[in-house]
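Appendix B. Extra example for self-study. Work through it before the problem class; the solution is given directly after the inputs so you can check yourself.
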Amino acid sequence: MSPDPISLLEAVSAARWRVAMSLTIAMMAAYFGFILLIAFNKPLLGSILVPGLSLGMLLGALVIVIAWVVTWIYVRWANTHYDSSVDRLRQ
Amino acid sequence: MTPLAAPNAVAIGFFLLFIVMSLGITVWASRKTRTAEHFYAAGRSVTAFQNGLALAGDYMSAASFLGIAGLVALSGFDGLIYSIGFLVGWPIVTFLIAEPLRNLGRFTFADVLAARLTQTPIRISAAIGSLAVIAFYLIAQMVGAGNLIRLLFGLPYEAAVVIVGGVMLAYVLFGGMIATTWVQIIKAMLLLGGATLLALLVLARFSFNPLALFGEAVRMYGPTVLAPGRQVSDPIDAVSLGLALMLGTAGLPHILMRFYTVRDARTARTSVGYATAFIGFFYLLTFILGFGAMVIIGRDAITKIDPGGNMAAPLLAEGVGGTPFLGFIAAVAFATILAVVAGLTLSGAATLSHDLWVSVFRGPKADEREQLVVARLATVILAIVSIVLGIAFKGQNVAYMVGLAFAIAASANFPALVLAIFWPRLTTAAACLSMVVGTVSTLALIWLSPTIQIDILHHASAPFPLRNPGIVTIPLAFAVAILVSVARPVASEARRFAELERQLHVGVE
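Solution. Structure tokens for the complete assembly:
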């Protein structure tokens, strides 16, 4: 028995919204966390971890890496789960 | 400011090579440009990898290459705040915008709003926001082009502006999106390749250990170069700038337009994944280039050539690779400016001709031929306007204009677009008001900000305390859209959204 097309569409929409929103919030939390640290705790970010590397530099590079990772997670999720649901919607 | 490389033969040689190659592509593309679909969307034939490069090419402007490298060279860590801010919008584009945009629209982001709301008022309001973003972005690029080319090639400012305007006009007018896309791809490869090579040459002096480079910067200029400093004095302003950079990326018309050049939503998603990888890599390189220039060239030598620090990367190229490498990097910077200006002009032409002329004034009466003629006419008008503005703003400090373009994109375009994609209850009146309020409030608050009132008009104080209005204008635009939709619901428009929901995922069948 094929699933009801309306409820399948709703399920696809809801799943996409859930994943997109969670990852958006994760990215914003990482970036604004970094900005707020810059704004409110400059000395902490200026602390030197090893010669040539401050905590701020490390966290800044980490924000770029996080942007890559969340994008990769989304693309992977969409390529596997979302695309197959969309294919079922097409039928 | 003194010319850095008064007519440098290598620079001129590389630059002419780029021009000849890109005009060759334009001739080839012009034969393939027969319909509006070709002109605006390259026949939807661009692959994910190509579009990833083209997106990166559209986004990595001379401001980010020369400006951020200079900022890092002069203020260390503070410059990095910008390079990180310019990247973090891309995941948001991936998650929220790219695929639905491709599935619901044809050429511009206003198509998405027009698909579910009443066409005429929506397109006019969207055009106001789009054209404001494009105008300020274009002015910043043109003025930057004039100054940089004067410094790099020793050409007069006006001549540089006219050359950029003229060559860009040739790309867009004859080659449309096909030529513009290939110009972006070549420019992105040159820029990524040139910046990588430059970074490797720098790192070679520090046994390929970035920490040794940063450590040397600390030894020469003190530990403050690795810590946040003066640039972020006000916490609210810092968050406000961050919001505008992040959400503005998702509202830039010339970036959004690129998602229509690929065949389907899946390709759009993959392409923005590639773009995020390229752009992130590029901004990581700016860490190395900026600190490299600080250490190898020295701050005094950089500010002696240009007080704004814009020549840090070219000087660094000369320092580590000699005159030929300087010539190459100078040509890459020129190509960068040309490509960004071409992308902006094409998206402006799409707004004027597709959104306004064809959709609002002529409707279905406009056939294929007329659409192309009007698009090309709009391109010529925009090229002339950008040259005139470039010359009119000569000598003005326009650094704030890119920030302004991002703030308008984040306040006028992003809220309406994201609500149109995700919120069934959005109404026409709400979306129109949101876009107009977003544009007008951003312009007004920038006018009242310290940037204009104190720095430019030399008044003692400014009525609005923040330099970046995003933290006020973005929530304001969302609030207007939501409150008006709730106060005056339109049942038929909510039903229309339900009809489109399938297309949002599946695309046009």
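Self-check: Residues 5-90 of chain A form one domain. If your reasoning did not lead you there, revisit section 3.
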